[in-house]
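Work Package 4 report. The design task specified in the project plan requires that, given a folded chain encoded as structure tokens, an amino acid be chosen for each position. We show below one input record used in the internal validation round.
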């Protein structure tokens, strides 16, 4: 350690080993030849979690903790924890910390998590619906344009509804990024009275 002569500031001497650390305050005017920093304890403190975009749901070991940005209090870096962030339209972020990482590594990982958008594809109906139809995925109504809806990449289950003609059907669809899948639909035929 080197200090300027007459330096009167206090400095923190820090020792880390994985999730454990210890520290002490030292002054240049009172320097010793050696310091005992072997009593390392688990680092427990306030852990800030944020994401881009923000307002992602935070789960600590499967339990909801609110939305980003948020600070988890009394986080023990030596405990085994799994942090998950979820936001609609984005891929889930998940990391498990098992005590092998330092507080700094954990904090840097969770300070601003960049969430990746789930790529979209399209499902087009063939033949087009002969009457007004609403399309739902997970209870949420989707917007339909040119007889097609956009869906996230992967497997989805959609519900087609037309209450006016008492029509309801569920369709399974597998979507690839940027691709259009054609869904053959057996629309209920309309009769005349």
């Amino acid at each position: 350690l080197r200090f300027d002569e007459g330096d009167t500031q206090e400095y923190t001497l820090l020792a880390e080993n994985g999730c454990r650390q210890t520290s002490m305050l030292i002054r240049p005017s009172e320097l010793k030849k050696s310091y005992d920093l072997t009593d390392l304890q688990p680092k427990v403190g306030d852990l800030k979690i944020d994401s881009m975009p923000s307002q992602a749901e935070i789960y600590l070991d499967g339990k909801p903790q609110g939305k980003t940005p948020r600070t988890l209090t009394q986080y023990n870096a030596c405990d085994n924890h799994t942090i998950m962030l979820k936001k609609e339209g984005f891929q889930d972020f998940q990391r498990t910390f098992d005590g092998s990482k330092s507080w700094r590594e954990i904090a840097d990982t969770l300070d601003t998590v960049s969430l990746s958008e789930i790529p979209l594809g399209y499902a087009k109906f063939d033949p087009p619906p002969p009457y007004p139809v609403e399309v739902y995925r997970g209870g949420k109504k989707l917007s339909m344009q040119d007889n097609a809806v956009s869906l996230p990449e992967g497997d989805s289950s959609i519900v087609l509804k037309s209450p006016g003609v008492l029509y309801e059907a569920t369709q399974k669809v597998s979507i690839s990024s940027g691709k259009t899948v054609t869904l053959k639909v057996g629309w209920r035929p309309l009769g005349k009275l």
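The helical segments are 103-111. Validation will be extended to a larger panel in the next phase.
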